[in-house]
Design goal:
Elements (H helix, E strand, L loop, with lengths): L2 E2 L9 E3 L6 E9 L4 H15 L8 E8 L3 E8 H9 L1 H7 L3 E10 L2 E6 L11 E3 L2 E3 L5 E2 L2 E2 L1 H13 L6 E12 L4 E10 L16 E6 H9 L7 H10 L4
Parallel strand pairs: 3-5, 6-13
Antiparallel strand pairs: 1-4, 2-12, 4-5, 4-6, 6-7, 6-9, 7-8, 7-14, 10-11, 12-13
Helix pairs in contact: 1-2, 2-3
């Protein structure tokens, strides 16, 4: 069964089950090209938002359609996505629904959690499970988008955990966040680390990265005073039943 993008619940994050061998396929031209008039409108919004936040141009993968076995889309400029968030008219034309990865990194009975930099455009200062990030153009290889490679890069960049430490990557599903109009490929990553390797650390995106026991993280989730990225909360709620 094929699904139309952006048509799930408008109230809460929804999940679609995926095959473990799900593929990410490019459709049509490799990137979205806009008429000059629309590009000028995008540029105005882009400059306004750059003045507020630390934003950098690049490419993100936008979902066009999907089913249980494959996700289809194309790469769009990040500035196009930012403009679409600020202008419903532009979003109606461009139909941008970015795809990212949202992972749970598990070691024994511990989960890796970071605090997002307060200068980030979204969820600054919130707790977030790691790794997390957009699907980048560099993940396109051999005719498909390699989301496992993307997850490995994110984990290495954010937490300095190399691919050789990863024992398993398990697909948890495709999640749609109606408030952001974004999709996330949920992943569970089991890693093998020594206790001495599970130390507090940091990265440009996360001023603090810590390993939390499952029990401690569950307490954080239940506290109304703790701010946690909604996608991380939902992902944990789904995956923790089988941990």
């Amino acid at each position: 069964m094929a699904y139309k993008v952006g048509t799930m619940s408008r109230e809460e994050i929804s999940r679609t089950a995926l095959a473990q061998n799900v593929r990410i396929i490019l459709e049509g031209p490799p990137e979205l090209i806009l008429p000059l008039a629309l590009e000028e409108e995008v540029e105005v919004i882009w400059q306004q938002e750059k003045a507020k936040y630390n934003l950098y141009e690049g490419f993100v993968f936008s979902v066009s359609s999907y089913d249980e076995t494959r996700i289809v889309g194309r790469f769009v400029h990040y500035r196009h996505y930012i403009a679409s968030r600020q202008s419903p008219e532009l979003q109606e034309i461009m139909q941008i629904y970015p795809l990212g990865i949202s992972g749970l990194c598990i070691c024994d009975k511990n989960v890796l959690v970071g605090i997002r930099d307060t200068k980030l455009a979204t969820y600054g200062g919130y707790y977030e499970c790691v790794p997390s990030g957009s699907i980048e153009a560099r993940a396109y290889m051999h005719g498909e988008v390699d989301f496992v490679a993307q997850a490995m890069w994110e984990l290495a960049e954010e937490a300095k955990i190399g691919e050789k430490k990863v024992q398993e990557v398990h697909t948890l599903g495709l999640y749609f966040s109606p408030q952001d109009g974004t999709y996330d490929l949920g992943l569970l990553l089991r890693v093998n680390l020594l206790e001495t390797e599970m130390q507090d650390s940091d990265s440009p995106e996360y001023p603090l990265l810590q390993w939390h026991t499952f029990a401690d993280f569950k307490k954080k989730l239940s506290s109304p005073e703790v701010k946690i990225v909604p996608m991380s909360r939902v992902l944990w709620g789904h995956a923790s039943r089988n941990l």
